[in-house]
Amino acid sequence: MSCPICKRASDQKYRPFCSNRCAEVDLGRWLTGAYAIPTDEPGTLDSPSDASAAPSTDEWATPGNTRLN
C-alpha cells in the first residue's frame, strides 16, 4: 500500500501513511475542510439560508456559565 499523501511505501507504524508528517498533513486537510463528504440533502450548513440557524454569540455557553437562553 502506498501513502495517500506522497505515494511512498506506507510504514506499519503510521499506516496507511509513510510517516508522522504525512499523517499530520492529512489531519490538517480534514480540519481545514479541504476534504469534504458531498451531500445532496437540503438544509446543510453550506447553504446561506442556514447561517441564520446558528446560535448567536449571546446564546453560547461559556466556561462556568450556563446557556443564556
Describe the protein's architecture and organization.
The protein has one helix at 20-32. The model has no long low-confidence stretch (mean pLDDT 78). The longest helix has 13 residues, at 20-32. The radius of gyration is 19 Å and the shape is elongated. By secondary structure, it is an all-alpha fold. The chain has a domain at 1-36: Erythroid Transcription Factor GATA-1, Chain A (2-Layer Sandwich), CATH 3.30.50.
Layout of helices and strands, plus pairs?
Blueprint: H1 20-32
What fraction of the residues are assigned to beta strands by DSSP?
A: under 5%
Low-pLDDT parts are none
CATH architecture of one domain: 2-Layer Sandwich
| CATH topology group of one domain | Erythroid Transcription Factor GATA-1, Chain A
Can you identify the CATH class of one domain?
Alpha Beta
CATH superfamily of one domain: Erythroid Transcription Factor GATA-1, subunit A
Which radius of gyration do the C-alpha atoms yield? 19 Å
The number of helical segments is 1
Please state the structural category. Answer: mainly alpha
**Overall pLDDT level:** 78
Morphology call: elongated
Topology as H/E string? H
Distance between the termini: 52 Å
Task: Using brief descriptors, characterize the structure shown.
69 residues, 19% helix, elongated, Erythroid Transcription Factor GATA-1, Chain A, 0% strand, 1 helix, mainly alpha
Summarize the structure.
By secondary structure, this protein is mainly α. The chain has one helix spanning 20-32. 19% of the residues lie in helices and 0% in strands.
